[in-house]
């Protein structure tokens, strides 16, 4: 069919033509916004899930909801090698600009505090000391949020921004993507600031998104974090939502899928949003006419697989060193379910649709024991810690439980085994 009208959008953070299966999260968030606006207390929100399930896209949708509710919003993406102060200052600047039209003295005062907060970073001995300036066109207000201790400063910053928002009868929401990549001091500062604003009832909320081990990162930092955040697991889509993600956008273009085609799609995508977009894109282009048939999907599969192998899997695999690759391959082998008697849970295919076994897809364990990986490599577990830790830092694997390790990328094990 016409590639020009192809509606599907595979890609990191790419807005899907239809945000399927996230109504509950969107509704919950609207309630949170409304409650905070009425002075009720609410926990901050943390979205967790594997790579490509749609965390970034959902985060952006929640941000749009906040903007529609006339809130001030700012967003940042955490990076392992970057401190929080500057990107947070930029997000705060944005949020206050959105809040404060028309601008008055009160707004300028808070902007000046954001500037002091930001400049504290430049003063701390970096090479950019004299060059870097936050793009804030008011004089800095020294003595507030600029102690140099990020925890103290963030609490003061949130308090002042929250006070401004409350005076204007609005709220402020900060969106933090890849939140697991914040450094330990920054994580603890975010927790402390959320703790403080929830106690003072100020209309500020943090919405974080990250990999499945993010709750563990937060609770390792502050034991009270479990009560501080509302955790929402973002998962692959159940069958009806996965169908909707394909059918809705096709219908907009006057096209359809047969029932068999939808079933075939679900068997190959397992409901993972990235795979739905990637397959949808190729299938659309190879299909001669509407409705798209199961046969079209069989024809499209090799091309879709090879695009995923390059764009989704390969780009990540390339970030690993040879020793890390060896570790990943051993994980893939250790994750294979060896027989029907196996006790462990499998990748979670059971709850959402047809059995993957029916389509010849191998069942995999969700997580494997690090000791099993070491056994397969004939090494001592401790000697593998550097490779494992580096892979965690690169966001390719995570440890949800002590002694266990899992891929952050769905179907990564399968990909690695086809490469071997
Ligand atoms: N609810 C949804 N319905 C349909 N498609 C979706 C949905 N959510 C995400 N997608 C699509 O899935 C792909 C991945 O989305 P996104 O980048 O938000 O995932 P992510 O969880 O942030 O991944 P990563 O952990 O790699 O950052 C995009 O192409 C997006 O368009
Ligand atoms: Mg993302």
TrEMBL record:
Keywords: Heme, Iron, Metal-binding. It comes from the Bacteria. Residues 166-332 form the Cytochrome c domain. Residues 1-23 are annotated as: Disordered. GO terms for molecular function: electron transfer activity; heme binding; metal ion binding. InterPro entries: AAA_16, Cyt_c-like_dom, P-loop_NTPase. This is Cytochrome c domain-containing protein. It comes from Intrasporangium calvum (strain ATCC 23552 / DSM 43043 / JCM 3097 / NBRC 12989 / NCIMB 10167 / NRRL B-3866 / 7 KIP).
